[in-house]
Amino acid sequence: MKIATWNVNGIRARAAQVCEFLEREQPDVLCLQELKANIDQVPEQCKTDAYHIYWHGSTMKAYSGVSLHVRKGASEPAFSHPDFDMESRIVAARCGNLVLASVYVPNGGKDYPAKLDFMRKLGGWAKRVHAEGCELVICGDVNIARTERDVHPVERKNVIGQLAEERALFEELIDDHLVDVHRQLEPDNERLFTWWAPWRNMRQRNIGWRLDYVLASKPIAARVQSCAVQREFGTSDHGPVVMTYQ
Questions:
Q1: What's 144's domain CATH number?
Q2: How far does Cα 146 stand from its chain's mean position?
């Protein structure tokens, strides 16, 4: 099972790259964030027949939007949006006992309290999913560097995305049920980043932040074989993250 997540920073600008990624990686699940497009603006070439797809396009032009792609198989996924969804920021799919979610947490620059509220409600929703006996995989751009080492030393500042109360809410989301899969596999990697500012060759120099995550229920995390960020792929300021598990 291969699950991928990518903040594309504009589906119209990255349509060919999304197709290339799908062709090369053949993921079973693909989560995209920051579509920056209404549903009717999604390029036709991205609407592949190999997947059940829910395009949760933004009604606010050039802002927000997520999608969830589930490879067609035995049963059709049941797509939904938790009641705390705002600005087209989360789409979930239930496939039997598995719940998948593509999430784009607000960055908080325009409305920091709204970001904190979103994180609290996301944590509560995750607990309800587990209480129902389901396994859960949350993929996406959380817009929080989980710890100090998830930011390059020269980028560590007292700014939104690195604040203590945000990180505390992130830990509450993970709680006793979820695992930060990438960090589980690379506990000592001090240069594990997924976002790089688009200037001064930050990406090439790997001076970045880790903002994109795969969070999985413990039974799934125990079967993970690999998880990697593809820093060299694409022209978004985020790199795709790809996880495989048995």
A1: 3.60.10.10
A2: 14
